[in-house]
What does this fold into?
Amino acid sequence: MKNRHKALYYSLAIFSVTACIVGLYGTAHGVGLPTITFGVEEADTPQKVSSALQVLFILTILSVAPAILLMTTCFTRIVIVLGFVRQAMGTQNMPPTQVILGLALFLSFFVMSPTLNAINEDALQPYIREEIQQPEALEKAIQPMREFMFSQVREEALSLLTGITLDTLPENRDDIPTMTLIPAFMLSELKRAFQMGFMIYIPFLVIDMIVASVLMSMGMMMLPPVIISMPFKLLLFVLVDGWNLVVGSLLKSFG
It folds into this structure.
């Protein structure tokens, strides 16, 4: 305990001496230590209120921007299908979640590259060159995303959401708001992902049933079939080049 007290005293002494040296040096050279202050002031003009609301809105958008971008792209379908592959093989945490998320993210960039290029050429670069204003840039940026979502959305999901949110039936795509298109697109992606997951489960389920039947016929009822079937599922997945088949089917599913 005495050693600890001595070490604490020495640390405080060194800190105090350092603070004094820094203060004397700043005073001698006319350099002040920086301070950070912030507070809430009363807005006396409408412009200040508008600026504060804009800053609050931007901060809110930035906090949910990753979720918005992921839900409006092909990431949802890809990551769900890859998760089904891991569960169907029964390998628990192999491949790790980070690997699945990384593969899904890069495949999403690959699929969305034409859309991202269109946004960059039509909206981002003109806005950086100050050729267009922010509202026009946002409108041009959302058009490629709407085209992609319209190409993947199912008619049933779109009819469901438009019937709930709109008073009249839309005559064309321009009459469908983006806030209606996004949930319809997400529902379509979930349905397609679960359909692909079901098809992935079938061959692995057949292997589990065969192994369980063999073990029952041999009287080895106490041995879990999963332990025996896992090597056969891995062997089947490797022999048919499963990753290429899954990734190829995913990419082809986006047309």
Q: What stands out?
A: Confidence is low (pLDDT under 50) at residues 4-10, 19-31.
